[in-house]
Design goal:
Layout (H helix, E strand, L loop, with lengths): L1 H6 L6 H5 L4 E3 L9 E5 L1 H6 L4 H5 L1 H7 L11 E3 L3 E3 L2 E3 L7 E8 L5 E7 L14 E2 H16 L6 E13 L3 E11 L5 H9 L3 H15 L9 H23 L1 E2 L21 E2 L23 H20 L3 H12 L1 H17 L8 H17 L4 H12 L4 H4 L5 H12 L5 H7 L7 H12 L4 H10 L30
Antiparallel strand pairs: 1-3, 2-9, 4-5, 6-7, 7-10, 8-10, 9-10, 11-12
Length: 487
């Protein structure tokens, strides 16, 4: 029965076949002791996969790449990247594999991709494996981001491998099955451009247009339209990160997806206290990827994409540069518009409010938040109460009461919509101390805290009785918080 179910799975091999120069055929390492730790049943159903089959021994083998349907062509993808500003010409999937593409219920294709499946030719000095904590972190946070309405790769499953993995200590191994609209990155274009193969670069751009921005194909300059679409997608994405207090932690160009989805949840974290300079990644010593720097870094990464696309934009180099500069120049305005619209929604105000009212109101509030500093998520949720006349919960969070009282008078005069605020400001986010608590327990074999947190985060905007601990900030003895890549 399981053989029949596996044979019924259809995995296409579009990337492997259309861009074979960027794909190294490879197989996942055998998993010695597979144990299903987490399965995203709703996502499985959207992909036409039977959750009951995926829980079976043969289904788990599919999730680890150890059993494949007919015609599947797993490959390790090639890409380059700027890592903390330094260019690495050959990165690629060092511990990951693209199993193939599968059709989603919305009609589009999705990549099925493994993380932690063993060494590939791109592995360099790594062992190619992953461990339970970081894989469950990506599952937890990516699904939380999806519930928040933020474009993201998804997590289908985490499977324990039964293989001990040496990190700072010996830890239980695990493997993530990740879903994305594609895994084409800025770094994929950088790698292709460095090879000076114009025909391959054109095929890669055509692939990205077909997968993500089909309307660009009919534009007068399709490759300029592609770049413009990516600029717009990243401006909107990073604005959404900023609005919920998300810090990616490692915005290298190989971690920027052309699709505009959030990808790679290594040293990520969420703000507790509002702090524009917040850095959580243990390896980001200079603060390159601090919370406030994320829009600037996104723009910088997009400039690297523009450099890679130049030969496609125009036959004359200077004209190509001019086109790229003009297109990239739209990023700041698009980001600012998206962030301002999002902030107005957080305040319950309409987008068409006069900028003379909106800008000073937002600026004075962010200054107030930083001075206190207040819990970013709880403050905005409490502020909806202030729109209903219950000012004290948000008022007692700030230090400068007179400034807050004056701000509230100006804000209320604009008629904030408390219901809009409730729909915009989450009650529950993946608070760092709760994530760490869940991952520590899971590493020791107890998945209950992880599953409870996952259930809470699946419905972030609905306040529910009995879940008060999931709304509270970190205890005083937690921190300073540092996150790690998990490799």
């Amino acid at each position: 029965m399981s053989d029949t179910a596996l044979s019924a799975v259809t995995l296409e091999a579009r990337f492997a076949n259309q861009l074979e120069e960027l794909a190294v055929p490879w197989r996942a390492e055998d998993v010695p002791g597979p144990e299903l730790l987490a399965l995203n049943e709703p996502l499985a159903a959207d992909l036409g996969l039977d959750p009951a089959f995926l829980r079976s021994p043969e289904g788990i083998r599919l999730l680890t790449g150890n059993a494949l349907p007919p015609g599947a062509t797993p490959v390790a993808q090639a890409y380059a990247g700027h890592q903390f500003g330094w260019y690495s010409p050959r990165l690629g999937d060092g511990r990951a594999l693209l199993l193939g593409e599968i059709r989603h219920a919305d009609g589009g294709l999705r990549d099925i991709h493994l993380k932690g499946s063993g060494r590939t030719p791109f592995a360099r000095g790594g062992d190619g494996f992953a461990v339970v904590g970081p894989m469950l972190r990506e599952y937890l946070v990516s699904e939380a981001m999806h519930a928040l309405g933020i474009p993201t790769t998804r997590s289908l499953a985490v499977v324990g491998t039964g293989r001990p993995v040496q990190r700072e200590s010996v830890l239980p191994g695990a493997l993530l099955t990740r879903i994305a609209t594609s895994h084409v990155r800025v770094g994929t274009f950088q790698y292709t451009r460095a090879g000076d193969d114009l025909e391959l670069l054109r095929r890669l751009a055509d692939y990205a247009i077909e997968r993500h921005y089909p309307a660009a194909a009919s534009a007068g300059n399709p490759y300029l339209a592609l770049f413009q679409e990516v600029v717009s997608a990243q401006a909107a994405l990073v604005a959404q990160w900023m609005l919920v207090g998300f810090v990616h932690g490692v915005m290298n160009t190989d971690n920027m997806a052309i699709s505009g989805e959030t990808i790679d949840y290594g040293p990520c974290a969420f703000l507790d206290a509002f702090n524009p300079a917040a850095v959580f990644s243990s390896i980001d010593e200079a603060g390159r990827y601090a919370y406030r720097n994320q829009p600037v870094v996104a723009e910088w990464n997009l400039a690297r994409l523009a450099e890679s696309l130049l030969p496609l934009l125009h036959d004359e180099e200077q004209k190509a540069v001019d086109l790229a500069v003009e297109a990239l120049g739209a990023f700041r305005g698009q980001y600012s518009a998206a962030w301002t619209a999002g902030m107005l929604a957080k305040l319950g105000l309409p987008e068409n409010i006069d900028d003379a009212d909106a800008s000073p109101l937002i600026d004075s509030l962010t200054a107030l938040l930083q001075e206190s500093p207040v819990d970013y998520t709880s403050f905005f949720r409490n502020l909806a109460g202030a729109a209903r006349g219950q000012t004290e919960p948000s008022r007692r969070m700030v230090l400068d009461l007179a400034a807050f009282d004056a701000w509230v008078v100006r804000w209320r005069a604009l008629g904030p919509d408390a219901d809009l605020m409730d729909r915009t400001n989450p009650v529950y986010i993946p608070r760092n101390h709760l994530v760490e608590e869940a991952l520590t327990a899971a590493t020791e074999g107890d998945l209950d805290p992880f599953n409870r947190l996952l259930d809470v985060l699946a419905d972030p905007f609905t306040e529910r009785p009995g879940l008060e601990r999931y709304t509270e900030g970190a205890p005083g003895d937690f921190g300073p918080y540092r996150t790690f890549c998990g490799t």
